[in-house]
Amino acid sequence: MARPKLGKGESERLQMVISREELDAIEDWRFRNRVQSKSEAIRRLCQIGKDMEFVVPDATERAELMLSSARLMYEFVVRSVETLDDGGKLDTANLIGRAANLLDQAADIHLILMRENNRIIPLAEPGKLQQALEEAARNEEDMAQFVDAYVANESELSESVLMKKALGELTGAERAAAIKQDTVPQAEKRAMFWMMRLAKMRVDFFRKKEDAEK
Q1: Taking Cα atoms as reference points, which of 121, 146, 139 lies closest to residue 47?
Q2: Closest of 149, 123, 135, 145 to residue 51, by C-alpha
Q3: What is the pTM assigned to this prediction?
Q4: Which DSSP symbol is given to 131?
């Protein structure tokens, strides 16, 4: 009986020995994601692992830079407060600059992980592997275009620039609502508010740019 066609090339049979714990982990993943067979689950996990080999080091390096920036910002705030106790003045421009830098670094990490997450989602859903790979490739291409546009217009679309503009556009009622959301139970609601607000600002930016180019 001919082997099923799984990709562009010829399919090869692979025999391997793994531990009971590894097999149980594969089975758990297969049932959790409703994948039809053990072989299919292994192929999908290989695709996910192959991509993460490059994503994790990049995201980790950027996270370390962000952590370093956060520490510097914390030290600066502590020193500034101590100076205020002595009658000095808080260097607000320096503080805002550090906060903006930290915010933009966080946005970079979010883009990296969002791009990979959009690729992984189809691979962890039921359906044929080839269709999942094609959908993953389309998602990756869409995200690549978004990232390219983001980088090309970074001066207008960076997280800190958009946040500063959005904060200035808040109405009195929106400011009051935002203050009420400044608690841990409301964190998810607050995050969703800003995600939708900044996404709309990016969409409006590209619409205006397209209209200007017509």
Answers
A1: 121
A2: 123
A3: 0.59
A4: H
Contact 161, 103 (CB under 8 A): no
The structural domains of the chain, with segments of one domain joined by +, span 19-154, 162-214
| Unique residue bearing structure tokens 């692992």 | 49
Distance CA 162, CA 31 (A): 42
Question: CB–CB of 28/124 below 8 Å?
Answer: no
Number of Cβ within 10 Å of residue 122's Cβ equals 20
Length of the chain: 214
3-state class of 56 per DSSP? helix
**The token pair that represents 37 in the structure block:** 């067979």
The backbone torsions φ and ψ at residue 87, rounded to the nearest 5 degrees and listed phi first, read 90, 10
Distance CA 147, CA 154 (A): 10
Q: Strand, helix or coil at 7?
A: coil
Q: Which mean pLDDT values do the consecutive 10-residue runs of the chain (214 residues) have?
A: 54 80 90 86 86 78 77 72 63 78 82 81 78 83 82 81 82 75 64 80 85 80
Task: Using alpha carbons, list the distances in angstroms from residue 201 to 51, 146, 157, 206.
Answer: 31, 14, 9, 9
**Structure tokens given for 52:** 């993460």
3-class SS of residue 203: helix
- What sign does the dihedral 99-105-108-112 (CA atoms) show? negative
- The H or E element containing residue 98 is helix 92-123
Quote the DSSP letter at residue 147.
H
Please give the pLDDT value at position 8: 60
CA gap 88, 69 in Å, rounded: 24
